[in-house]
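Practice problem 4.
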């Protein structure tokens, strides 16, 4: 990947700084050198660098760890690589937990340093791209509540951006708990109808008579107990959007009545002969396979094509595991704030179990699990959620099987290679997440990737 970056080299020996800068500059990077920690910290406060390469010991009041802390606070997105003697490796391992990207031992192998720097450059470029896309979507379309950076979620966000301003009917397909109502809210909020209502009705479990009354309303005396007239959901949503959740559960006899309303834009209240014109945009959602239901004659084909102006397929959480860490952090932060608990995150082991779980209830289940863990956690013991805080059904569940299948019959080396390959695939190539799940350092993971010739 051919990427150029702004790199700051920090070394108290000027000749060493120049040698490193020259070696990295040959890759086309723009190099800046300083010879003490104070100068590096001053630069980071006024200038953005993609990567900082700093010696751990700088011979002054500020050392490489101070430079790391400055980069973390003053220059978000900057990756820091430490250079150290073998005797200080433990210190650098601690620095990795504090946010350092990696470390390189002396004497420096310039090819190794180039590889580490290039990985850091790739990460900053990837995070910058994701951040910029999210910023554009959040600033212009307010999608901040839809958490995810997987290719599937970014594609869905882009689809919402494109179709939201239109009056095209939208069908959202996805398992229960995937967040279909959240997408419907985003579509309405960023449509031309946002000043009007978003009216929601869950069709599951409702009989034809109840559905008809809910959707179209009734006049006084329409049925026993109808003491007055009532507007239905379509009238209530006039000028805005109606969201029919679990539309696949609608009785087929009711489907014909819904189709007539969608085709002529008129509703007739129960017990009345007078048509009432409504101007409504329809968003539907289902956890069923409507195309299969059409083939089985349990869902009307004409209604299916009427509601499917644009189709959004929302994948289950187990198919976008790279979003799980983001969702975990989002739910922990919001739950801690809501319940006044000083919980700041999870241990690596706890995160690994949550990422490996299959989440049959999808995002809704993950949110509820995190909420319960935060509420029940003993914050006096730890500010991080641990394995002890996990619900029994999550802790005892087997981890997701790798797509490659059982590893029986493989050598240890081949099994390790497959394990690393599958983990990288599961997290979308994110080495930091993969290393955390595997329980090894990111530096060790990099060496294994290189050793086995793996590509993320």
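Answer key:
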């Amino acid at each position: 990947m051919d990427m150029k970056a702004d790199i700051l080299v920090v070394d108290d020996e000027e000749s060493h700084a120049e040698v490193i800068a020259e070696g990295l500059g040959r890759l086309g990077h723009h190099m800046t050198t300083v010879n003490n920690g104070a100068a590096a910290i001053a630069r980071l406060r006024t200038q953005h660098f993609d990567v900082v390469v700093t010696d751990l010991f700088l011979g002054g009041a500020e050392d490489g760890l101070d430079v790391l802390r400055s980069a973390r606070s003053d220059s978000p997105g900057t990756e820091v690589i430490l250079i150290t003697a073998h005797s200080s490796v433990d210190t650098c391992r601690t620095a990795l937990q504090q946010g350092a990207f990696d470390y390189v031992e002396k004497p420096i192998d310039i090819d190794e340093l180039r590889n580490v720097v290039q990985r850091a450059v790739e990460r900053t470029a990837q995070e910058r791209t994701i951040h910029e896309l999210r910023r554009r979507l959040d600033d212009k379309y307010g999608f901040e509540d839809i958490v995810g950076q997987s290719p599937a979620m970014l594609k869905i966000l882009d689809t919402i951006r494109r179709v939201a301003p239109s009056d095209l009917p939208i069908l959202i397909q996805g398992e229960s708990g995937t967040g279909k109502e959240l997408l419907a809210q985003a579509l309405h909020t960023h449509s031309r109808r946002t000043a009007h209502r978003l009216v929601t009705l869950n069709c599951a479990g409702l009989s034809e008579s109840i559905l008809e009354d809910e959707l179209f309303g009734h006049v006084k005396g329409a049925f026993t107990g109808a003491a007055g007239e009532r507007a239905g959901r379509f009238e209530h949503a006039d000028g805005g959007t109606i969201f029919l959740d679990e539309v696949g559960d609608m009785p087929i006899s009711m489907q014909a009545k819904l189709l007539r309303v969608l085709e002529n834009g008129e509703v007739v209240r129960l017990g009345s002969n007078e048509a009432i014109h409504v101007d409504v945009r329809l968003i539907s959602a289902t956890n069923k396979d409507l195309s299969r239901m059409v083939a089985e004659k349990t869902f009307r084909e004409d209604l299916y094509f009427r509601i499917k102006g644009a189709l959004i397929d929302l994948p289950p959480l187990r198919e976008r595991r790279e979003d799980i860490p983001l969702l975990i952090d989002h739910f922990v932060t919001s739950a801690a704030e809501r319940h006044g608990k000083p919980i700041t995150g999870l241990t690596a082991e706890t995160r690994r179990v949550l990422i490996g779980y299959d989440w049959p209830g999808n995002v809704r289940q993950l949110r509820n699990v995190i909420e319960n863990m935060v509420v029940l956690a003993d914050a006096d013991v730890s500010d991080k959620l641990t394995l002890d805080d996990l619900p029994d059904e999550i802790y005892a569940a087997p981890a997701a099987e790798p797509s490659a299948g059982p590893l029986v019959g493989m050598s240890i080396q081949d099994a390790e290679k497959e394990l690393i390959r599958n983990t990288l695939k599961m997290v979308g190539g994110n080495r930091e997440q993969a290393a955390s799940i595997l329980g090894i350092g990111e530096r060790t993971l990099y060496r294994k990737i290189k050793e086995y010739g793996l590509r993320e």
